[in-house]
Write a structure and sequence with these properties.
Radius of gyration: 20 Å
Number of helices: 5
Strand content: 25-35%
Mean pLDDT: 80
Structural class: alpha+beta
Helix content: 10-25%
Number of domains: 2
CATH architecture of the largest domain: Ribbon
CATH class of the largest domain: Mainly Beta
CATH superfamily of the largest domain: Umud Fragment, subunit A
Distance between the termini: 23 Å
Number of strands: 11
Length: 243
């Protein structure tokens, strides 16, 4: 496969490993030098990692195999972009429900409300009009009341891609937002966005903003919205992959 595709996925994997605490600066067991030793065979080759991240050097299939060996990164992801990224990945949205398991039933007999309003995986708000159509359905193994949205955009790639459907639940009373988890944000303008969230507090420890973070960080920068613009937060707990 073209090495530039490997490199783009390598960048995503490297950031993901940092987020997972597998690469930690100034940590003797998880430093960039240790990572370089696993991938390139020499602790002094940390500079090669930086070159790859800047597209000044390309990794090869051999390096992708090293990622699989030492960090459980799936070769199918590195070579074909097929999810999940990690062999041991157990993030909430990693659950996949084959289309054969999706069972549509009459309203009142199922626990998932499907909405035609799209949740936008972009850095711009998409306007959802009032002509929203809803239908109830169920998926084996998912219990309790949930809401489903189809995703429009690729800012959450590779975790969620354009056309995927996310299954969400409203936060329980008193439940706190977990930083870096994935949520659907509904604003008072009736816009929907799917992002990782980070809470921003002022000097008096009052929540004032939410930082919205994309997994496709190479193409999409994080941005902020004031907390008073947030109408609802729904936590993404499952994903149905586009066929």
């Amino acid at each position: 496969m073209p090495s530039n595709e490997l490199n783009e996925r390598f960048k995503i994997v490297y950031q993901a490993l940092q987020d997972r605490g597998e690469i930690v600066k100034s940590n003797s067991e998880k430093s960039k030098s240790v990572f370089a030793n696993y991938i390139f065979g020499n602790k002094s080759y940390g500079f090669l990692i930086d070159k790859c991240l800047r597209n000044e050097r390309k990794i090869s299939f051999k390096h992708a195999q090293k990622l699989e060996e030492h960090y459980q990164v799936r070769l199918d992801y590195m070579t074909k972009g097929e999810m999940p990224v990690f062999q041991d990945e157990v993030t909430p949205v990693a659950s996949r429900a084959p289309s054969s398991e999706v069972r549509y039933v009459e309203k009142g007999n199922s626990n998932i409300l499907f909405s035609t309003a799209a949740a936008f995986a972009t850095n711009t708000f998409g306007m959802n009009n009032s002509e929203e159509y809803t239908e109830n359905f169920s998926i084996p193994g998912i219990h309790g009341e949930h809401v489903a949205f189809v995703i429009d955009g690729n800012s959450m790639y590779p975790t969620i891609t354009n056309g995927d459907m996310v299954i969400c639940r409203f936060l329980n009373t008193g439940e706190r937002v977990v930083d870096k988890d994935i949520y659907v944000i509904r604003t008072f303008d009736n816009n929907l966005l799917v992002k990782r969230l980070q809470r921003i507090f002022d000097k008096k420890n009052k929540l004032v903003e939410l930082k919205l973070i994309s997994d496709n960080y190479i193409e999409h920068d994080p941005f902020f919205i004031p907390i008073e613009e947030v109408r609802d937060l729904l936590k993404v707990v499952h994903k149905v992959t586009r066929l």
